[in-house]
Amino acid sequence: MVPLTVENIKKSFDNVQALRGVNLQVEKGQIYGLIGPDGAGKTTLMRIVVTLLNADEGEIYFLGKPTKNNIGFVRANVGYMPQRFSLYPDLTVEENLRFFGDLFDVPQAVQTKRMEKLYQFSRLGPFKNRRADALSGGMKQKLALSCMLMHEPGVMVLDEPTYGVDPVSRAELWDILKQLASEGKSILVSTAYMDEAELCDQVGLIFKGKILASGKPTDLTQSLKRLIYLITTNNAHQLYLQLQTVFPAQDCNLFGNGVHLIDRKQLGLEQIKKTLLDRQIEFHDIQPIQPDIEDTFLELIHQREVPA
Amino acid sequence: MSEPWAVQVKDLTRKFGDFTAVDHVSFKVKKGEIFGFLGANGAGKTTTIRMLCGLLLPTSGQATVGGFDVYSQPDLIKQNIGYMSQRFSLYEDLTVRENIEFYGGIYGLKRKQIRQKTDELLDYLHLTDRADTLTAQLPLGLKQRMALSTALLHDPEIIFLDEPTSGVDPESRRQFWLLIYELAARGKTIFVTTHFMDEAEYCQRISIMQNGKIIELDEPQKLKTKYQASTMQQVFLKAIGEIAQ
Amino acid sequence: MNRTFKSIVRKEFLHILRDYQTLIIIFIMPIIMLIMFGYAITLEMRHIEVAVVDHARTPQSRQLLSHLQSSDFFVIKAYDPPESQFESLLQKRQVRCIMVIPADFSLSLTGERFTPVQLLIDASDPNAANFIQNYFQKISALFNAENNPQFKFPFEIVPRFLFNPNLKSEYFFVPGLIAIIVLLISALLTSIAIVREKERGTFEQILVSPVHAYQIILGKVIPYIILGFVDSVIILLIGHFWFQVPVHGSILLLLATLILYLLTGLSFGLFVSTITDSQRTAMLIALLMTILPTILLSGFIFPVPSMPVIFQYISQIIPATHFLKIIRGILLKGIGLWELKAPILYLTLLSALMIGLSIKKFKVSLE
Fold first, then answer.
1. Which B-chain residues 101-140 have CB contacts (< 8 A) with chain A?
2. Same domain, C57 and C113
3. What is the arithmetic mean of pLDDT over B50-55?
4. Which listed residue, A263, B148, B152, C298, has the most CB atoms within 10 A of its CB?
5. Same-domain status, C173 and C305
6. Does A136 touch chain B (CB under 8 A)?
7. Above 80 in pLDDT, residue C160?
8. From the CB coordinates, do chains A and C have 3 or more pairs under 8 Å?
9. Of all residues in chain A, what percent carry a pLDDT higher than 90?
10. Residue A132 host element (H or E)
11. Measuring CA to CA, which residue among B74, B58, B80 is closest to residue B9?
């Protein structure tokens, strides 16, 4: 049985189509990453999954049961972490955990046991008597995650748990998610950070209410099927502007380390090099690279906006 | 101002009670440079920026911004800087035009100037036909570019950006960075904080802050070589990890 | 006025206009409150239900009953209920009082004997009980005068009510409502408006511009002064033309003192906004600091001299107490500036103090 199946979900708010037919599946022990910018529809979809919102169309199956008429069942068995998760800032770490344990009717003795385990992997143990508002951003997110785990849900829905969190804490959070998945939990997680895609088992790239592509991260990047060249220089901006005079604008993408050029016409390395030299475009080096998720996403966005 | 430095900071310190948020920080930013400021949450980035913008008085140390002293000339600093934070400063219940006019107004631009600047800006952002829609209805990426543009109405020399790109799509992020490059090309100095490590590479130099101190300050490429890392993400994790041990 | 300042004022007006729900409330509220106080919450009573037991059954006793009936105050709900039912009648609130006329009632009128007429009043609401007793005394006096014209008390108190001869409660609550609504707008709304900007984070953006703290504050405050002023004028107009509240004194002085009082309210609102960062807290503090004491302690509803001494002192601190002196003085007594110098001076000093404190605190809170 697939823990979570989303079928053709559509949702509109006042004439704005937030979701235009979304499909996805989260397998047992897997992390499904919903990746896309703010306003793509991630939060709406997650709210529908956890029954906080009703879909206009489509069906969701949670542990085999349609969510529509099993609201109580879903809520009792899902671990949901909303985007700006509201811990109680005036309660301590331990009080927050206890509260969420009580909320799901977990017996005191079990709570104590689970808390020990959660302290271990969140490393929040030393701070258990600290008030939540005195925690750093990363620790808050870990606490929020721990609160959600007090009732040991099999399926977890996490809305941008790494939002606004520094890279170190982000890496830690992802370690925790990996561990949970290895224990058999099914996790649906959203993020706006493209580089987090590699950490997921399955990825859905969502943009403007539609999943543009989905699959394993490596499959997705290989699906681009076009060679990408990294051209480096010390003035990436200048290079970018010059390249645009030679190649179509949507084939040049500015990156931190230089410009990524999509070789749509399959000119080949030598031909491109020659063109650059002919046009007297200055650059240090040009080499073919493996496209990453960001290249893929940009390409998909461009395809949508510039119909071929 | 013939000196080449837009920002000069020496032993800058700020304490809140017993807590030292910024601890003897020193650095210099060249005119026309894109200077990145990285660090974990609570490392002291925002406190540093607030001191440099004249919002907060330092406890000790020296700092000049655009040649003006943060202790004695905060008003002059404010006239010469642009500032944009992660919480976009636009009023959602005002229209695009009203927002632009408001910020033009508080910088004391003349009515004619405001009108001219507003038209220029609307044209630049391709918003002329949406000038009278409420700002709340704009897509995030556009709001963000608009927020930056309004922060630049008074043509400041130095621009502070505090996590300006959180949550926008990769395409909008690129357009935003193009805007930043353009500004730098026009000689403006850009001081930017970010959580996107790949964005750090857009900067000419970056500093990494931890526990109120600057632990690294160099060009991204040199840092990558130093830490034998292929991405800034790795540089960051290694730099912070080394200090922690 | 410089451009910076103008653009802040303009922006604040736009906020107010865009938030049309609040705007509607601001203009509808005084009207609803006027109707409430004018019609629903009247301080007089009408149609009080009574039961009567006539043991006398003489022409005189019937005359007394007809007096009772013909007055607008009473409605006779039950005749001659058995004594055993008295308690339950009162308990079930079927009647508010029971009058028992003794069998020898008529004899007393010829002067042979003094006969008390018994009155049982439900005193669970002491105010109402007082009213009922007073009304009965009025009727009995009338009856006595008709039936016993030669009888004379050694002296009689004939009250003459000055300034409000008909004891109309409108005269009382219209000034009081102005005191409340002006506070509501000036203290509550301004504090929320400032704190909201802090919450949104837009405040920071304004602070990094060369605008001065006083410009921000004044710019945010002026639209609310205008709103509060317009609202007060609406109440005054309705009060004057609908409820016939007189304006005996100078209108100019009235408007000037109104602006002074608005300033006092604003200074409180500013102060509240400097000590909190959330709209919710701002609202609660503003309610606690301004609206509640104004309703309870200013003499708007409960007269100050009848309060315990400590509350009398507290009431002297509350701006509304002084404003009520001013506005009632001008409206009902027609007195002038000289007689009102004390409360006016107090409000002026209080505003200056609060604004000074706020600006000082404001600068600190930005740190």
1. 139-140
2. yes
3. 89
4. C298
5. yes
6. yes
7. no
8. no
9. 36
10. none
11. B58
What SS3 state is found at A221? helix
Which among C116, C147, C178 is the end of a domain?
A: C147
Residues A9-35, mean pLDDT to the nearest whole number: 92
Please, which residues bridge with residue A287 across strands? Answer: A230
Closest chain A C-alpha to B107 CA, distance in angstroms = 30
Whole domain around residue C220: which residue ranges? Answer: 3-41+169-366
CB contact under 8 A, B202 and A256: yes
* Other CB atoms within 10 A of residue C35 CB: 13
Where does a domain end: C94, C115, C147? C147
Q: Residue A143, CB half-sphere, CA atoms under 13 Å: how many?
A: 32
Residues C317, C185 within the same domain: yes
Domain boundaries, position B140: 5-244
Which of B53, B109, B111 is the closest to C208 by Cβ? B53
| Secondary structure element (H or E) that encloses residue A38, with its range | none
With helix as H, strand as E and coil as C, how does chain C read? CCHHHHHHHHHHHHHHHHCHHHHHHHHHHHHHHHHHHHHHCCCCCCCEEEEEEECCCCHHHHHHHHHHHHCCCEEEEEECCCHHHHHHHHHCCCCCEEEEECCCHHHHHCCCCCCCCEEEECCCCHHHHHHHHHHHHHHHHHHHHHHCCCCCCCCCCCCCCCCCCCCCCHHHHHHHHHHHHHHHHHHHHHHHHHHHHHHHCHHHHHHCCCCCHHHHHHHHHHHHHHHHHHHHHHHHHHHHHCCCCCCCCCHHHHHHHHHHHHHHHHHHHHHHHHHCCCHHHHHHHHHHHHHHHHHHHCCCCCCHHHCCHHHHHHHHHCHHHHHHHHHHHHHHHCCCCCCCHHHHHHHHHHHHHHHHHHHHHHHHHHC
Range C197-205, long-range pairs (CB < 8 A, 24+ positions): C198/C273, C198/C277, C199/C277, C199/C278, C199/C279, C200/B87, C201/B85, C201/B87, C201/B89, C202/B89, C202/B90, C202/B91, C204/B55, C204/B83, C204/B85, C204/B87, C204/B89, C205/B83, C205/B84, C205/B85, C205/B89, C205/B103, C205/B151
pLDDT at C364: 53
What's the structural domain count of chain B?
A: 1
- Per-residue confidence (pLDDT) for residue A65, from 0 to 100: 92
Binned at pLDDT 50, 70 and 90, residue C164 comes out as low
C162 lies in some domain: no
The predicted-structure confidence for C75-111, as pLDDT tens digits, reads as follows 888 888 888 888 888 888 888 888 888 888 877 666 6
Contacts of B201 in chain A (CB under 8 A): 255-257
- Judgement on whether residues C76 and C36 belong to the same structural domain of the protein: no
Q: Say if residue A308's pLDDT is above 50.
A: no
Higher-confidence residue of C116 and C342: namely C342
Residue B170 belongs to domain with CATH number:
3.40.50.300
Instruction: Examine the pLDDT at C161 and tell me if it is beyond 70.
Output: no
* Dihedral sign of CA atoms A213, A217, A222, A227 in order: positive
C247 shares a domain with C141? no
Report residue A5's pLDDT band, with 50, 70 and 90 as the boundaries.
very high
Residues C179 and C92 in one domain: no
C11 closest CB neighbour out of B54, B87, B94: B94
Q: Which one of C2, C3, C210 has the shortest CB-CB distance to B78?
A: C210
Of C7, C15, C201, the CB nearest to B106: C7
Q: Same structural domain for residues C118 and C229?
A: no
- Domain total of chain C: 2
Is residue C328 located within the same domain as residue C236?
yes
In chain A, what is the straight-line distance between the N-terminal and C-terminal CA atoms, in Å?
40
CB contact under 8 A, C208 and B98: no
Its ipTM equals 0.73
How many contacts does A have with B, using Cβ atoms within 8 A?
93
Contacts of C211 in chain B (CB under 8 A): 106
